[in-house]
Amino acid sequence: MVISRPVPRTEADLLTRARALAGRSVGELAAELGAACPPDLRRAKGFVGGLVERALGADAGSRALPDFSGLGVELKTLPVDARGRPVESTFVCTIPLTEVASLEWEDSPVFRKLRRVLWVPVQGERSLAPALRRFGEPLLWSPSPAEEAELRFDWEELAGLIGRGDVESITGHLGQSLQIRPKAADSHARRRGTDRDGAVFAAMPKGFYLRASFTARLLSEHFVLPAASAP
Question: How far, rounded to the nearest angstrom, does the alpha carbon of residue 132 sit from its chain's CA centroid?
Answer without folding.
Answer: 22
